[in-house]
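pipeline/complex-builder :: batch 7 item 3
reading input block
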Amino acid sequence: MSGPIVAGKPVGMEVSIAIAEAAKLADVDIVAAYPITPQTHIVEHLAEIVADGDLDAEFIPVESEHSAMSVCCGTSAAGARTFTATSSQGLALMHEILFIASALRLPIVMAVANRALSGPINIWNDHSDVMANRDAGWVQVFAENGQESLDLTIWAFRLAEDKRVSLPVMVNFDGFMLSHVVEPVTLPDAETVRKFLPPFEPLQRLDVDAPRSLGPVGIPDIYTEAKKAQLQVLLDSYGPILETWGAFEKAFGRRYRPVETYRADDAEILMLTMGGLGETAMSVVDERRAKGEKVGLVRIRLWRPFPFDEFRKAVAKCKALAVLDRAISFGGPMGPVASEVKAALYADAHRPLIVEFVVGLGGRDVTFADFHRMWDETAAAARAGKAPAPRMVGLRE
Amino acid sequence: METQEIRFHGRGGQGAVTSATILATAAIRQGRFAQAFPSFGPERRGAPVVAYARIAGAQIRNRTAIQQPHFVLVLDPSLLRLVQVEHGLRPGGTVVLNTAKDEATVRKEFGFRSRLALIDANRIAREEIGRPITNTVMLGGLLRAAELVDPKVVAETMQEVLGAIGPRNVKAFERAMAETTVHEARG
């Protein structure tokens, strides 16, 4: 629900609706989605837009998320610009097909409102869903607010359909914390988006007049090479990612980078967030800076391919780094992001002390007091020169 | 403008989320910064629900839950027996109540000590809208208690968001602006 939609001026809009509007601006051909819990207003609004005749697209309601992603693979392979959205168990049910979409290099764009996985049954916000699909071969980015969610959705089509890339792109934005919030969002005008997004020309197209097979058997003799080729394409997408973010900045005036920092230049203690916690963390940085503390923030925007070099540069000078994870790697290292970060720094001569926290699971609020406690504990660890064991914040024991 | 936080208590289907949305959307239209969000849980028609709004003069870098609102709106008087509506209310905060009772009775019956804004929203809603849906009326009560957003902009936004039922709601909202009584806190 929102007022009339005017381009170029901030309007109050639910973030899910803004993402639906982004898909409309991208002039998608196909939306395939399972419209029942756990869903968001994204596909509900797109269904309305299509039914009202405001978008010349086909909305395909399917019987499960497994089918939703399967349809997306088929339509993308046939040359249609394809969008879907899901969340939580829905993403889990897509799991099998996510790997096929990336292996077939189908430039599907999917918005994921990040939420917990059952059990216990929980529909609230964390990153369990996306982390279980970390290795699916998709380009994965995280948004921090409504504007970024909209921007990254539009950009995702440009990157996905870039012939050097031709990979599916997942735009992660936090469930509820972002998906259900009405906030100021500026919609770009349709003409600028049209110029930014050239018509989709697939690498190869399923076509009855020129038959071909996509995704046949890869016997042991070829599977390794196929996987190497797939990996290389994902790694090589890094250049086009920077380039298309540059083009986005030129067209729309907003700048995106694989790793973004806040008041980090002279910071001795940094905190790392990914997604919607970033803005609250910035406010806490401001509060601590006001007291003269040298603290700052590092935000991972690009999760896959992981920006190893940019990340190393961002933390090169700090003494200690607090890493906030929103999911658990059961029985392994505690958090998937901290694990990644440690792997990125292992070979470096200078390694900051890494203090690991798991926060905000299944919708648990992460308060200003929680942030301050994490910063205090990280500062104490830096003084002691020793990191404590990974800790779940706000845990009642 | 210091950030102002508002909590709406209603029942599923009474439009608490809609009124939070209208308020935030109007604030943004006025050039301010705002958020509106529901309590994050399963929603059922008739069950107690909570919605929130945050309004500020600068960009809001805060995605935490609202625990200490400046204003609490109670859309349905029957909630007073179920929910501690004053819970977490900031010192100096205001409770905006849908009630046909007078100040002394309300204070005696429910033990309120805070600043109160009282409005017989059920009656206004029935007379103007034809149904006891009080969400837009209660926004009138809120804006009478505090100049958070320009009421004209709220009325415009209400009209746009609600479409065909807009004019009746705007009239109810304007009546509430005029009929709400505000009573300062008692010790």
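note: The mean pLDDT of chain B is 95.
queue -> next item
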